[in-house]
Amino acid sequence: MGWTILRHLGAWLLIGWPAWVLAADPLDSPSWEDLRKRYFAGQTVVFDEAVQVNAPVSAEDPLNVPIGVDASGLAGVQEVRVLADLNPIVEILSFQPGRAQPRLGFRVKLQQSTPVRAAARTADGVWHMGGTWVNTTGGGCTLPSTGSASADWQRRLNEVSGRIWHNAAAGPGQRVRIRIIHPMDTGLAAGIPAFFIQDLLVADASGHALMHIQGHEPVSENPLFTLDLPEGQTNLAKVRVTGRDNNGNRIDAWVTP
Description:
A hairpin with a 4-residue loop joins strand 10 (114-122) and strand 11. 5% of the residues lie in helices and 43% in strands. The model is unreliable at 1-21 (pLDDT under 50). It is globular, with a radius of gyration of 19 Å. The protein has two helices and 18 strands.
């Protein structure tokens, strides 16, 4: 069977071959083939420079590794999935951008040095993937949270704080930052079950979704999420944050500038 290689927007596509036929993983991950079969079986995945993952080359604190995912270089992004190849729990989070830009800042726990990759699904069903290696001393996923040992964490569980502001670095729109009090236990520390925020919706005052986030255990304790609104979304007076954790505890709060 004949085939051609098409280079478009930084992505390599093999035309005429099955969806799983790809160029070599640019991150050279020993786990990539297993991840592809587990999370993208039968789907088209292309390595694309338009999807950026920003992270420190060396992370000193494996419990709080800052990650920034940016797929705003693509049109029609429906969903973004973030994975850490060599973590004991690979899935970090996924999100649907709604009215927000398809980019998100957050912090994660890493057990060891690993590729961290983001895959953005566009309206045509293609997953566009970018990523980077993060080096760390490790142990982030098997250490207990500090919140679990705090005397008042139950009183403040799912407490939301945040701000809304204009930030030139975010472009002409507004930036929203949200912090939620939660231990985000992975279930890998001895005697401490998994306990994490599972579902989170950020919406404007009219109920329009700005971003829907599905969290997993590797998101850092007291998660901090930063999202950006595009041009035209410049007068946001407040946002509503709703959701739940895996034990059914509810989140419901308003954030104002």
